[in-house]
Amino acid sequence: MSAKHGPGANAMAILTDVTRCVGCEKCVMACERTWNTGDTIPSVHAAPDGLSGNRWTSIVKIKDRFVRKQCLHCVDPSCVAACPVHAFYKMENGAVIYKAGKCIGCRYCMIACPYSIPRYDWDEPKPFVQKCKMCYERLLEGQRPACTQACPYGATIFGTRTEMIAEAHKRLKARHNGVEAVSYIDKIWGLHEYGGTSVMYLSDVNLYELGFPTPGKVSAPYDSIPGHYSHPVALQTPFLAATVFGSLAGITWIINRRMAAAEQKQKEKDQDY
Ligand code: SF4
Ligand code: SF4
Ligand code: SF4
After folding, report:
1. Closest CA to 201 of 17, 12, 7, 13
2. What's the CA gap between 2 and 91, in Å, rounded?
3. What distance in Å separates the CA atoms of residue 226 and residue 116, rounded to the nearest whole number?
4. Whose CA is nearest to atom 3 of ligand 3?
5. What are the Cα distances from residue 65, in Å, to 52, 72, 77, 100, 176?
6. Torsion, Cα of 114, 147, 169, 161 (10° steps)
7. pLDDT in 10s for each residue of the chain, 273 residues
8. Which of 39, 68, 147, 164 has a Cα at 20 to 30 A from 32?
9. Centre of ligand 2 from the C-alpha of residue 246, in Å
10. Ligand 1, atom 5, residue with closest C-alpha
């Protein structure tokens, strides 16, 4: 079931403590194995941050720290608000999921995401949007996200959002990450930014590179992306809008895409998102 605005009582979350990550990428490999993303051959379209249509989590280097990047599963996600056909959903358990069968390929979600997370299947003849889904199907079965289970260093852990916030406060107060004393920056990254996220961080280096709002810089407020085409974000993409909605070729393209989406839909394991 989709969630209303705000974190529900059952909302789950991931807490990544940057000070415990050694950059081994076991989490990245676990994601690939679990969802068979095809990451054994890295995409030529992979961005510098390592994310791509077939890599949903990556390790980036910020100063001397390894920082895991993935969808932050925002409490009030811009991708959900921006999608004109409701292909994105915020679920009660905190996961933000994507239903390929509904997508028309406008990629407004990619424009709207303040953390630059969703990627497109540029390598595929029938492309779709791709991103971490917080192992939604595993959560339904009572399992943890595969990446959090795989981490041998406890650098990325899983629980309710309330539990993760409490654990983060405990570490900040103790200035200790459970293994060693740490000079944390005194904040939980993701607690409030853009309405808050379900993937939060503790760190001793600034994480603005992940897309968190930088003091003194103008950022789009999380609620500034309503799901209609009159919004300035939509108006910045007149070419896309014209292509998708303004021409017969666009309509034909949409029909073809819907047929491709229908094929994809058949392959999706859980038809009840
Ligand atoms: S990080 Fe981006 S893709 Fe993920 S839920 Fe937030 S807005 Fe959506
Ligand atoms: S939560 Fe699941 S889908 Fe997301 S990065 Fe971890 S293993 Fe991949
Ligand atoms: S498995 Fe854990 S320690 Fe290794 S890169 Fe991932 S988060 Fe860091």
Report:
1. 17
2. 4
3. 18
4. 21
5. 22, 19, 27, 35, 17
6. 70
7. 565 556 666 799 999 999 999 999 999 999 999 999 986 555 555 678 999 999 999 999 999 999 999 999 999 999 999 999 999 999 999 999 999 999 999 999 999 999 999 999 988 888 999 999 999 999 999 999 999 999 999 999 999 999 999 999 999 999 999 999 999 999 999 999 999 999 999 999 999 999 999 987 765 544 333 333 434 444 444 444 444 444 444 544 554 565 556 556 555 544 444
8. 164
9. 37
10. 73
Tokens representing residue 258 in the block: 């819907």
Give the C-alpha separation, 265 to 187, whole Å: 41
**Contacts of 125 by beta carbon, 8 Å cutoff, 6+ apart:** none
Q: Which residue has the tokens 């895991």?
A: 68
Q: Where are the domains of the chain?
A: 12-210
Whether the CB-CB separation of 129 and 109 falls below 8 Å is answered with: yes
Cα 210 to ligand 3 centroid, rounded to whole Å:
17
Listed in sequence order, the residues at least 6 apart from 241 whose beta carbon sits closer than 8 Å to its beta carbon are 106, 229, 234
Please report, as a single letter, which amino acid is at residue 54: N
Confirm or reject: Cβ of 31 under 6 Å from ligand 2.
yes
Interface pTM, i.e. ipTM: 0.95
135-to-12, 80, 96, 146, 249 alpha-carbon distances in Å: 11, 18, 10, 7, 37
User: Which ligand is in closest contact with the Cα of 83?
Assistant: 1
Q: Is the shortest distance between the CB of 18 and ligand 3 below 6 Å?
A: no
